[in-house]
Amino acid sequence: MAGWLIGIPVPFALASPPSWGWIVAANVLLGLNQGLTWSMTVNMKIDLVGPARRGLATGLNEAAGYTAVGVTALVTGYLATAYGLRPVPELIGVVFVVAGLALALIVRDTAAHVALELSQHTAPVPTGESTTLGATFARTSWHHPSLRGASQAGLVNNLNDGLTWGVFPLLFTDHGLGLAAVGLIKGLYPILWGLGQIPTGRLSDRIGRKPLIVAGMLTQAAGFVLALALLDTPLLAGVLSAVALGLGTAMVYPALIASVSGHAHPAWRANALGAYRFWRDIGYAVGALVAGLLADALGLNATVVAAAVLTAGSGLLAALWISEHRTAG
């Protein structure tokens, strides 16, 4: 509820901003809104479904969110074409805020499910293991091997997304593609990423999280290789790389969240998921910065090579650090 209340000013600030500062402020509020609301939907679904179906539940949650991002981009693009850039496209956000706040008011809290899970959990919190935010953040970021492996994989995965937004349009336009073709390439990636998480999330419940995490990171690395290897036919290179990146991300995303929830005790699971999502989502910003620095220093091709090497290395670290243990519950 707090997240949706914070989000109320966002569409109005974007619809008629008197200065650039209003745009910046709206993005700050939007970030807080997303951090609170989306994180809680992840926690609530994990609370509700239990260990056996966490991959499917998180896959559905992430697919719903990222598919909505794509659909909203299409709708606002149409509205901008028909009515101009402001204020109509931004005001669709009013509908989202009202709907989100209304749902937050009527949805049931899942605290009782966590309490039940804790009462039936076979393993108590080990003596001396702190459940505070600081201790859990350190445990998720570094001390616990599997959680460390998931955090670094999540960061690199989203670094790829930030990097492709900066590099791919320039790379493919330099090789003769127009805006429509570049838009197709960039659209395929999130569509496959979003919709693909439903079957991959379910698959992670069946075969385990680690195989999908490792294979997904290596598939993304292959996507970067394809982008360069087939540049003589840039449209084919772009489409195949987007397919590989989208499918690789779909393999990784729900499996990583389910893996973190499986390795975290219910007493500190929400804190662990928050720490993991911090590292994962900061990858967007890191990717944008890395893309700019490397492209300026080494060129676009070298930046894509560096992304492939980094992603493959992340997959190997995931294979080394992440175990397939799941918390009983």
Automatic annotation (TrEMBL):
UniProt name for this protein: MFS transporter
A GO molecular function held by the record: transmembrane transporter activity
Domain Major facilitator superfamily (MFS) profile: 146-329
Gene Ontology cellular-component terms listed: plasma membrane
Broad class of where this protein is predominantly found: membrane
Tagged with keyword Lipid biosynthesis: no
Pfam family name, one: MFS_1
Membrane topology: Multi-pass membrane protein
PANTHER family listed in its UniProt record: INTEGRAL MEMBRANE TRANSPORT PROTEIN (PTHR23517:SF3), RESISTANCE PROTEIN MDTM, PUTATIVE-RELATED-RELATED (PTHR23517)
This protein's UniProt keywords: Cell membrane, Membrane, Transmembrane, Transmembrane helix, Transport
Keyword GTP-binding: no
Localization terms from the record: Cell membrane
Organism, scientific name: Streptomyces alanosinicus
Transmembrane stretches, start-end: 20-42, 63-85, 91-107, 212-231, 237-257, 278-298, 304-323
